[in-house]
Design brief:
Distance between the termini: 34 Å
Radius of gyration: 23 Å
Low-confidence stretches: 51-57, 270-274, 337-344
Structural class: alpha/beta
Oligomer: single chain
Mean pLDDT: 88
Amino acid sequence: MEVMSAKEAANKWGISQRRVAALCSEQRIAEATMVGNMWIIPTSAEKPIDARSTRYNRTEEKAVRPFLKWAGGKGQLLKEIERYYPFADGRITKYAEPFVGGGAVLFDILSKYDLSEVYISDINAELINSYRIIRDDINALIEMLYTMQSEFIPLDTDSRKNYYNEKRERFNDLKVNGNEDINIEKAALMIFLNKTCFNGLFRVNKKGLFNVPMGAYKNPMICDEKNLRTVSEKLQKVTIICGDYRESADFIDENTFVYFDPPYRPITDTASFTAYTENLFNDEEQIELARFVDDMHKKGAKVVISNSDPKNSNTEDDFFDNIYSAHKIKRVEATRMINCQAQARGKIKELLISNF
């Protein structure tokens, strides 16, 4: 078999030697082999489709991060979830995330791909309001956040607690009694509370009121202007809906990649301390979601679902194995990052379920 070096392949294909090496390390060039510190490639190898050269694939634009710390966020699982991204061949041109939460997967995809349509939704009205304000009123939001930052940072601990509690009370008042005229303030308050509360935990009580105490951060970045402006740019063409995941059905078709990250099924009877909204997601609703996933599968969409693995606490619990029996289930290792007890944070298994 005749071979060529990465440099020779780069000249042949009209790309950089560094890009050839990256394609080899990603195993996208058949039979490419590392010999010493250089790649050897069959001369018969064809240039892989470069995801960056199509409208629907990789971009070299600005990276963007979630603007909120979010319980259950998928930042630590991105490498696993990224393996499922189906955009390389250009057929999948749309993305939907009906439980968007903090948006770790959303922002990873928006950083890497230029898709024709993107749809996100959540039933958390305050969260969706924040997404919309960042997209539509970024200047006013940044001005308000800078004001809060300049007022909060110089205070001593007791004064900070008083300031924090006043803002929390104001946020809850707007949550219950608010109207369209104060949405910018509500978004600013949500971001402020997220950046300054204990563990960055968004949690509400049964009345729907945010009830997390202040954290002990010395110098929190309340207004990350650079990232917020980048988030705003990335969200300009995104459809943002406050509503149930079922509303995404009209958007989803055979050209869509869908990622479902519903509220996780509690691993133990005491594990449901984290309520992101006043609406709970019980086993019957998990089953309803599985049926919806089956419907989207029939449409031809590419689907990935994440959830907790009940086998962490009961090896006989086949709940998800049963309701997703028609699909592929992968168990991946994750770290329980947010827990009221430090000793309860550690490695657990989570599920990634896919229809492809």
